[in-house]
Known about the structure:
It is a single chain. This protein has one helix and nine strands, in the order αβββββββββ. It has one helix spanning 2-14; strands spanning 17-19, 23-25, 34-41, 46-51, 54-60, 68-74, 77-86, 90-97, 100-106. The strands form two sheets. Strands 1, 2, 3, 4 and 5 form a five-stranded antiparallel β-sheet that branches. The longest helix is centred in the first third of the chain and has 13 residues, at 2-14.
Amino acid sequence: MKKIIIATLVATLLGCTSASPKQYYRPAGAEQQVEVYGRFDQISFEHQVLINGSVVVNGQLSYNYDEGHFSGEYDGMTVTSDCKWKMKKDLICLVKINNEMAATLTF
């Protein structure tokens, strides 16, 4: 019985992380496109942006549903993610690579 309760609790916690659909973007001057997507943990409010599977932006949003601005680096390029809430329900993050719009992540 104890194992069932623990397994249920772990499954509940793991199910609270949502991922945005993958999007593709080719930075200016680059030969190859990159795969951009994100994750958002609904319990810790942690937000991540991944490019080609590597976490390049990592930060925690406010529990007050304030907007958030995060930055990181990928392959020598600056990556920013500007997040805002839509009716305290949907999270939308605009990702830019070297100040060029690269993706719109929705959670």
